[in-house]
Amino acid sequence: MNIRKIAEECGVSVSTVSRILNNKPDVNEDTRNKVIRYMNEHGFRPTVVTNRQDTIGVITPTISFPEYMGELMNGMMETAYSLDMHLTLIPYSGKALSETKDIAHFCRSNGLKGLFVINPPLQSALPVSLVQCGIPHVVIAASYPESDVSWVDIDNTGGCREAVQHLIQLGHERIALFHAPILHPCDVDRVTGYHDALQSNNIKAEANWVVELGGQADIRHMVQKVLQEVRPTAIFCTTYRGTLAVGNELQSLGVRVPDDISLVGFGDYAVSPLLNPPMTTVHQPIYRIGKTAVDTFEQLLRQRAYSKIQTVLPARLIVRESTRKATV
């Protein structure tokens, strides 16, 4: 099938089909939808795209955490290069993606063999749409175990459970949680790990000890509020930057870590052992996540019929000097 055949079947000119393929704006919306629907139904891929099958889009969130994204992209790019794949970055909030109504046509018109999607929002319809449209894909840093989505993630729940269990084994029962706003699947999983550890040890989670992190100006108020009544003996934070912010506020309030309160964070980076005190953290294998995602994509391309591949990589606790046995 070629664009001339599509033009004949849809009753339009070849130039109209060409403009639609190249996302030109000067096409009637009904005509555009009719042609795109026909191409989708017949699995059309133009010749120029067929010759570029090794180009894969990487849909990225706003890169506000370069420590994570840099290591992840290293794992992806080095592995992709070894497999003769070419990666092209696409902002999740970018104009090209946000304005498209059809992800299959987006891939076709941009010459993409498929897509990687990094940490999509919790309510995003994109992962399921990729399955429905038959687009090769791997979602990264988000889990969809009850779906046909292919993804690579770490055991967020297990890592957080292990962190809180570590505190419990040190004798802590009054354990506060500072967690990220619930915007992504990992945010849900990490809070679940905290509650799982407490419940399995018959420890009640006090409502005022479970705090959603806000902006920097709010963190001092949040920490002060948690310390006002019955003071926790330990704090677990589900984000790396949240751990740093809470630790700084404790220090400014004259609360010593770990003498007065033990502190554990999620996210183990080069600076973690250099903090004062060196921070006990949940380590995630970021480079390996990126490498596994690209390897998974390559496996999907070799399948005769689509069969989902879902991979959970382990997260492990690195114990340092920010935690100690409870004294009260």
Structure in words:
With 328 residues, the protein is of the alpha/beta class. It contains 13 helices and twelve strands. The strands form two sheets. Strands 2-1-3-4-5-11 form a six-stranded parallel beta sheet, sandwiched between helices. Strands 7-6-8-9-10-12 form a six-stranded mixed beta sheet, sandwiched between helices. Helix 5 links the parallel strand 1 and strand 2 (86-91). Helix 5 packs parallel to helix 13. Mean pLDDT is 89; it is low at 49-53.
Describe the secondary structure blueprint for this structure.
Layout lengths: L2 H8 L3 H8 L7 H13 L5 H4 L4 E6 L5 H17 L3 E6 L3 H4 L4 H7 L4 E5 L7 H7 L4 E4 L10 E4 L1 H14 L5 E5 L5 H16 L9 E3 L3 H13 L5 E4 L2 H13 L9 E5 L13 E4 L2 H16 L8 E4 L2 E3 L10
Helix pairs in contact: 1-2, 5-13, 9-10, 11-12
